[in-house]
Design brief:
Blueprint lengths: L10 E3 L2 E3 L9 E2 L15 E8 L3 E5 L2 E6 L4 E6 L8 E10 L11 H6 L1 E7 L4 E7 L10 E10 L19 H20 L3 H7 L1 H10 L4 H16 L11 E6 L4 E6 L11 E3 L4 E10 L8 E11 L2
Antiparallel strand pairs: 1-2, 3-16, 4-7, 4-9, 5-6, 5-8, 8-11, 9-10, 12-13, 14-15, 15-16
Helix pairs in contact: 3-5
Length: 308
Amino acid sequence: MKQRLDYKLFIHSNGKMVRLSFCIIMLLFTAYSPVIAQKKVTKGKYFLAVNFSIPFEVLVNDLVLVKGGVDGLAAAENLDAFLTTDGRQKIKIRVFAPNMEKGGVISPKLLKSLKGAVYQRDSSKEKLLLSLDFSGQQTARPSFEQEWTFDHHSELNYGSLKNAVNLNRMDKQELQKMVLSRFNELRAILNAGDGTTFMKIIDKAKHDLFAAERMSVAEQKAYNENLMGYFDAHKGIMPEIKNYQLRIMGNGKAVTLENATAPKGLGVLTAEDKKDNSRYQNYFILQLPQHGKQFEVFKYSLSYTGLD
C-alpha cells in the first residue's frame, strides 16, 4: 500500500525537498494568505478514517474529499472544511476492483474487510459517529458505493458554494472550454515553479482551512512555508493536459478535471518526478462565483507518494 506524507513533514535542504520515512495523514489544503488570527471554538474536530486496500474515493456533501489509487490507502481526513452548513451531512464511498477494466470484481469477503469510521475528537475524548462498512453484500461486483448521513451543527463560517454558479445550467462546451483554460493556467504556473503566484491564486480557500484546522499563528506560518516549497518543487515536471474528463460535483456548483487515462481518476495537475521516484498527487476543485469572470480554486487536496 502506498503511503503519503503530511505537508508539515516536508523538509528542505539546500532548496530541495526531502522525503521522510514515515507515514501520516494527508491534510486538505485550501490557499495562501497573510496569517489570520485563530478563531476560538468549543466543538471538537470531525475526522474520517479509512483503511482500504483497493482503489476508492470518498465524497462529503458531493465533493471529493480523498482518492486512493491502485493500492488503496490508509488515511485520516479532517471533515470540518466540508461541513459548511447545519443539518444533515452526506458521506459517500465508492470502491473499485483494481483490474475492473479487465473484468475484475470485488468479492464479498474483500468488501467486508474494508473499514472506515467518522468520529468527533476534542482534547479530552473521541466520539464515534459512524461506522463505515459494506457488510451485507453477497454478490461479487466490479464496484460498490454506499452512502451514510449524520447531523452536524456548524459553529464556524466555512466557505460554501451558496454564491457559486449552477454549472448544470451552462452550455457544456463553453463550460469545458472555460475549465480547461483555467487548469492550463494553473499548470503553467506550477510548471514554472512559481509557488508565490500559485499561493496567491488559491488565497480564498486557505481561509477555510485555517478555520477548519483551528491553526495557531505559528502553525499557519509553518504551513505557508512548507506549501510554498511543495509548489516550487513542481518546476519542469508538469505533464500536458491531454486525456481528461470534466466532472461536475457539489450539487452542480463545483467542477474539476480528472485524468481519463493512467493515472486514471486522479486530478489532471498530478505530476511525477522520475528522478525522485515520486508523485505529487494534486486534486483541485473549482467554483465560478456569481458575476465572476473566471473559475476560482474552491478546495484542493495534495499528497506526496512514492511510485511503483
